[in-house]
C-alpha cells in the first residue's frame, strides 16, 4: 500500500531533540484532525521510541535518528523511528515490561507504553546494525 502523504527527518540522538521529534510528528498528524487524546497518545509513543534510541541504541555516543511519518488510506498513521545503533539482541525479551539494559534508573516500560498508546507496534532489530520501531494509529475521519 502506497502512502498518501509522508514526511521524513533525521536528527542527532541528543535528548534535547526528543521534544522536537514529538512536536513534528504531532504537527504532521494534525492534518487528519485527530482528537486531543489521539494526539497525546502519538506524542507519548514517539517520545518513548526516540528516548529508547538516545538511551539504549547509542548509549554514550551521538548517532542519527530518523523518523518517517506517513498517512495511508482510511486515516492510518504510521510512524517509523529508526537508528543505526547497537541493536537489540532479543527483541521479545526487550519488549517485556520491566526489562531494561539502561541500569537502575530506567523502568523498562518503553515498549509497554508504546503498545498501550498505539494500535500496533512492530520492532525489528539487528545487533550492531540498529533498530526500527513502527507505530500505527488509526485516526478519526479527515
From TrEMBL:
Transmembrane segments: none annotated. SUPFAM superfamilies: ATPase domain of HSP90 chaperone/DNA topoisomerase II/histidine kinase. The keyword Transferase applies. It comes from the Bacteria. Its EC number is 2.7.11.1. InterPro entries: Anti-sigma-factor_SerPK, Anti-sigma_F, HATPase_C_sf, HATPase_dom. GO terms for molecular function: protein serine/threonine kinase activity. Keywords: ATP-binding, Kinase, Nucleotide-binding, Serine/threonine-protein kinase, Sporulation, Transferase. It catalyses: L-threonyl-[protein] + ATP = O-phospho-L-threonyl-[protein] + ADP + H(+); L-seryl-[protein] + ATP = O-phospho-L-seryl-[protein] + ADP + H(+). Residues 37-141 form the Histidine kinase/HSP90-like ATPase domain. HAMAP family: Anti_sigma_F. Binds to sigma F and blocks its ability to form an RNA polymerase holoenzyme (E-sigma F). Phosphorylates SpoIIAA on a serine residue. This phosphorylation may enable SpoIIAA to act as an anti-anti-sigma factor that counteracts SpoIIAB and thus releases sigma F from inhibition. Belongs to the anti-sigma-factor family. NCBIfam families: spIIAB. PANTHER family: ANTI-SIGMA-F FACTOR RSBW (PTHR35526:SF3), ANTI-SIGMA-F FACTOR RSBW-RELATED (PTHR35526). This is Anti-sigma F factor. It comes from Ruthenibacterium intestinale. The gene is spoIIAB.
Amino acid at each position: 500500500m502506497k502512502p498518501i502523504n509522508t514526511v521524513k527527518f533525521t536528527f542527532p540522538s541528543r535528548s534535547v531533540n526528543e521534544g522536537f521529534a514529538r512536536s513534528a510528528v504531532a504537527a504532521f498528524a494534525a492534518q487528519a484532525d485527530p482528537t486531543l487524546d489521539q494526539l497525546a497518545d502519538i506524542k507519548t509513543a514517539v517520545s518513548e521510541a526516540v528516548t529508547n534510541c538516545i538511551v539504549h541504541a547509542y548509549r554514550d555516543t551521538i548517532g542519527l535518528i530518523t523518523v518517517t511519518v506517513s498517512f495511508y488510506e482510511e486515516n492510518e498513521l504510521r510512524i517509523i523511528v529508526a537508528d543505526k545503533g547497537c541493536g537489540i539482541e532479543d527483541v521479545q525479551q526487550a519488549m517485556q515490561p520491566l526489562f531494561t539494559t539502561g541500569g537502575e534508573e530506567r523502568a523498562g516500560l518503553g515498549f509497554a507504553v508504546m503498545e498501550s498508546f498505539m494500535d500496533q507496534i512492530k520492532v525489528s532489530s539487528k545487533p550492531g546494525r540498529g533498530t526500527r520501531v513502527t507505530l500505527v494509529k488509526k485516526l478519526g475521519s479527515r
